[in-house]
Amino acid sequence: MSAITAVLAKICGSSTWWVSILLPILKVLLEKIGIVIPWEAIMASTGAYGVKEAASKLQPLVAAKVAAQKPQE
């Protein structure tokens, strides 16, 4: 789970160049915890900046899932 938050933070806080590298990794990690997002559609419509914006909005949701799963681990 901390890998997901690290990848999200890197996408949000870095240049758009990192988006194309980290997006496939983020997509797989999120699907493992049940979050499916149409990243290709976001990338096609708004580009890397749209992906960065979506990732920043996703951070609280992922943080909540991480907090909810910590007692189980």
Summarize the structure.
The protein has 73 residues and is mainly α.
Key features?
73 residues; mainly alpha; 3 helices; globular
Structural class: mainly alpha
**How helix-rich are the residues, as a percent range?**
over 70%
How many beta-strand segments? 0
Tell the overall outline.
globular
Question: Can you walk me through this structure?
Answer:
The chain is mainly alpha-helical and 73 residues long. The chain has helices spanning 2-13, 17-32, 39-69. The longest helix has 31 residues, at 39-69. The radius of gyration is 12 Å and the shape is globular. The protein starts with a helix and ends with a helix.
Secondary-structure topology with pairs:
Layout: H1 2-13, H2 17-32, H3 39-69
